[in-house]
């Protein structure tokens, strides 16, 4: 009865752009009510009570692997009420049926792989990540190699899709759970996230900046020192962004006491990439608030190491001077070429 009522072909996506939108404002974009929901709700309630109140050893002959795969398919429903019900049932089965846990984890991972590398469209990624957040929270220490591979091969690539904003909150929670359990993973995670840094998607940049700030608070000084240059190179590009929100978010990170403390102990790596962008902001950025925030960060950096800041300024001036000379020489070469071309034309 349950299978007949629940397992049905889902209608095609009402709008294919919903799941692939770059800037989904909220979850309402994935809300398409199912007309049969009053009926389906009763069926889901029966299934949930059956799972909660029956002996798993008896139910395993009926709730088998094909049943679980069919249930997993329903996470693609565009009705959030149905996805919430499927999530509750699926999670309860995972809790009460320990002999299915390995299979269910692998089945969920297959959904993530299909989403990242093939379709870039799935309504239930956030719901599945909520289940995973609870599972990760229950992992014992030390972490098994299988679970570390899940972090690196599944969770990190989920930062890649353009529609990451639709499920980023749940994704960031799962990643942070891993790093809190085993801080040594923090450096690896930060390095991998930097590989997926967007070039033109400002909303995604804002999400990743916030996630990186949280992750940095869970790594030690030695890890930060190794990551300082690539991390601050990305942040330096963000703080000089033409997008106001991105620039302000990157500058506000310097108000984080832990980040500032870590940066102060890796100034040789941080200053060369940050000073240039700060000075560029002060001279050229179009927004007054960004220029003011940049001035505050400049004061902070000068207090950290005034000699190194001055040294970076001198190097910056020398670079500008060399660039000016190269530009002048380039113009002279073009003038000589134009003059030679004019003479050749007159002789012919």
UniProtKB/TrEMBL annotation:
Q: Which GO terms describe its cellular component?
A: protein phosphatase type 2A complex
Going by the entry's taxonomy, the superkingdom of the source organism is recorded as Eukaryota
Q: Which InterPro entries match?
A: ARM-like (IPR011989), ARM-type_fold (IPR016024), PP2A_B56 (IPR002554)
GO terms classed as biological process: signal transduction
One GO MF term on file is:
protein phosphatase regulator activity
* Coiled coil (UniProt feature): none
What is an example of a Pfam family matching this protein? B56
**Which SUPFAM superfamilies has this protein been placed in?**
ARM repeat
Which parts of the sequence are annotated with region: Disordered?
1-21
Any idea what this protein is called? Serine/threonine protein phosphatase 2A regulatory subunit
The organism encoding this protein is Stephania yunnanensis
């Amino acid at each position: 009865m349950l299978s007949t009522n629940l397992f049905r072909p889902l209608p095609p996506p009402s709008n294919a752009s919903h799941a692939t939108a770059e800037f989904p404002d909220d979850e309402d974009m994935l809300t398409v009510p199912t007309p049969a929901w009053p009926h389906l709700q009763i069926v889901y309630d029966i299934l949930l009570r059956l799972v909660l109140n029956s002996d798993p050893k008896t139910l395993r002959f009926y709730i088998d692997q094909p049943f679980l795969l069919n249930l997993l398919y329903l996470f693609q429903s565009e009705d959030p009420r149905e996805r919430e019900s499927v999530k509750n049932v699926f999670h309860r089965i995972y809790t009460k049926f320990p002999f299915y846990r390995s299979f269910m984890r692998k089945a969920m991972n297959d959904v993530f792989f299909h989403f990242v590398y093939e379709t870039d469209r799935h309504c239930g990624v956030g719901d599945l990540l909520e289940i995973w957040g609870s599972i990760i929270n229950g992992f014992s220490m030390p972490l098994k190699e299988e679970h570390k591979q899940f972090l690196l091969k599944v969770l990190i690539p989920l930062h890649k899709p353009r529609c990451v904003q639709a499920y980023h909150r749940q994704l960031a929670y799962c990643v942070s759970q891993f790093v809190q359990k085993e801080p040594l993973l923090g450096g690896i995670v930060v390095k991998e996230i930097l590989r997926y840094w967007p070039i033109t998607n400002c909303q995604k940049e804002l999400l990743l900046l916030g996630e990186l700030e949280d992750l940095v608070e869970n790594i030690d000084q030695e890890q930060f020192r190794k990551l300082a240059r690539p991390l601050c190179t990305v942040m330096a590009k963000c703080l000089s962004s033409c997008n106001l929100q991105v620039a302000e978010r990157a500058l506000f990170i310097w108000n984080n006491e832990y980040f500032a403390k870590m940066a102060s102990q890796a100034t040789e790596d941080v200053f060369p990439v940050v000073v240039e962008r700060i000075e560029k902001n002060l001279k050229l950025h179009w927004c007054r608030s960004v220029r003011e925030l940049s001035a505050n960060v400049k004061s902070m950096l000068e207090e950290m190491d005034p000699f190194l800041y001055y040294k970076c300024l001198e190097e910056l001036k020398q670079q500008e001077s060399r660039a000016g000379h190269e530009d002048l020489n380039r113009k002279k070469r073009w003038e000589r070429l134009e003059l030679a071309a004019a003479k050749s034309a007159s002789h012919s």
